[in-house]
Amino acid sequence: MSRPLILVSNDDGITSKGIRVLVSIMKRLGEVIVVAPDSPQSGMGHAITIGETLRLYEEDIFEEVVAYKSSGTPADCVKLAKHYVLKDRTPDLVVSGINHGSNTSISVLYSGTMSAAIEGALEGLPSIGFSLCDYSSKADFSHVEEWVEKIAKQVLENGIPKGIALNVNFPPMQKEAIRGIKVCRQADAKWQEEFAERFDPNGRKYFWMAGNFVNFDKGEDNDEWAIANNYVSIVPCQYDLTAHHAITQMNKDWDWESLKR
Amino acid sequence: MSRPLILVSNDDGITSKGIRVLVSIMKRLGEVIVVAPDSPQSGMGHAITIGETLRLYEEDIFEEVVAYKSSGTPADCVKLAKHYVLKDRTPDLVVSGINHGSNTSISVLYSGTMSAAIEGALEGLPSIGFSLCDYSSKADFSHVEEWVEKIAKQVLENGIPKGIALNVNFPPMQKEAIRGIKVCRQADAKWQEEFAERFDPNGRKYFWMAGNFVNFDKGEDNDEWAIANNYVSIVPCQYDLTAHHAITQMNKDWDWESLKR
Predict the structure, then answer these.
(1) A11 has binding-site annotation
(2) Could you tell me where this protein is found in the cell (chains A, B) (predicted)?
(3) By three-state DSSP, how is residue A92 classified?
(4) Does any domain span residue B157?
(5) By residue range, what is the domain housing residue A209?
(6) Among A140, B34, B146, B230, which lies 20 to 30 A Cα-Cα from A220?
């Protein structure tokens, strides 16, 4: 049996510690190819590059792994990998990360890490985004390595439902070992923004966005709960945003007479 | 009864024709405030500005309307509006657009227009993104004005389910009048990318992303069908990406013995 082909990307950029750890784990499981941004792309959400040019350069940065860096977003990187770099081959797995920082709950919407994984799912490929709930650039990843490997292996062997990307988050390093895995729903939480005002040397105002994370969710079946209780959280994510229940509700509640031609 | 407060944003930038049309319609329905990007932000998805500064300037561009332009993304604009510009007031409605170009089907993921609307929904505000399926900067919006007004009025009067943002798309101007409104699901379609290679004057390669839209969806209950048949499509969108059915499936199908500590 030939070794599986594994595409690796991320949003912290090709030189980050998280992607180095991810590449080293994936090398145990198959043939690895990397297409990742040439600079940090945190908070890029599902941005793509339209009306601007894209660069793509081969970069000899990982031992025995073909790697490319791109000027594009994480989603661009997966598109470039699928439709240019790997034009005649199909990856068996797309992995993104390991992100330096949490992508639980609503952060999935803003996450470049997850946009690469969701882009993989759009292409019909089994895809996983990995994030460590520790924002430090020097974060300790040693406690998550076995879990990343187990989960990737599971997906290679047992698959995931078509069109689904897994949002995997790990608790930060703690005294006690990680307790296990919870398959979760996305917690209902949000960022409550505050804007810090500053003035530049010309006296013109500018802002820094800052925010407090507010968790409204009292359940124990969501990713915030899992991380707070030292479990790995896995949320299966879909790219169909339709709120199907709302179709029924709107067709029932709206005044359709007034909405005719 | 006081007039409703309506926040307007977009992704084509504050000087685009689409937002001018939207502002003029909203002025009939309430007090309008604009916070929009200072330059085009198409394809920005749900990007936000992290680790960079933001600018925000008042701009006297719409008659009798307080307007601000920002260096940020569409999602940033809604955050700035909610948590800075309108700190002590709550908008009754958030509208984004009218986008120059389609945001049907999978384009909702890449859409800056919809990210502003979804950001509004995240804040618990009734929110609508409007798009015209015509990419021209001089697109004719005259056939959609009555529909934009009717839909906005409907939302102000009858509301939408909490946490939902409406993705409204209009067919381009045609000989026959628009036939009516369909509340739809997001069509299962995707962009099939191609990368056009070019060389700069220094002989270094670069790329333009191009793509063909491929529609796999044979149903008549989706937004692609509605637009192709000259209907207004409305897809209610949610920000919970959890594929709830997949939780059951994974808990059943995966080899959990091997995933224990």
Answers:
(1) yes
(2) Cytoplasm
(3) coil
(4) yes
(5) 5-241
(6) A140
Quick one: what percent of chain B has pLDDT higher than 70?
Answer: 100
Both tokens assigned to B194: 């191609």
Min Cα distance A18 → chain B (Å) is 19
Which of A151-155, B135-139, B222-226 shows the lowest per-residue confidence on average (mean pLDDT)?
A: B135-139
Contact A122 B108 (CB under 8 A): no
Whether A42 has a binding-site annotation, put simply, is yes
Q: Could you tell me if residue A194 is inside a domain?
A: yes
C-alpha to C-alpha distances, A191 to A2, A215, B48, B128, B251, nearest whole angstrom: 45, 9, 12, 21, 30
**Inter-chain residue contact A241 with B238, CB threshold 8 Å:** yes
Contact state of A150 with B259 under an 8 Å Cβ cutoff = yes
Q: What is the distance of C-alpha B33 from the center of its chain?
A: 18
Which residue among A177, A239, A247 places its CB closest to the CB of B183?
Answer: A247
> Residues near B203 by Cβ (< 8 Å), separated by ≥ 6?
none
Q: How many domains does chain A have?
A: 1
Q: State how far residue A42 is from chain B, nearest Cα, in angstroms.
A: 7
CATH of the domain at B246: 3.40.1210.10
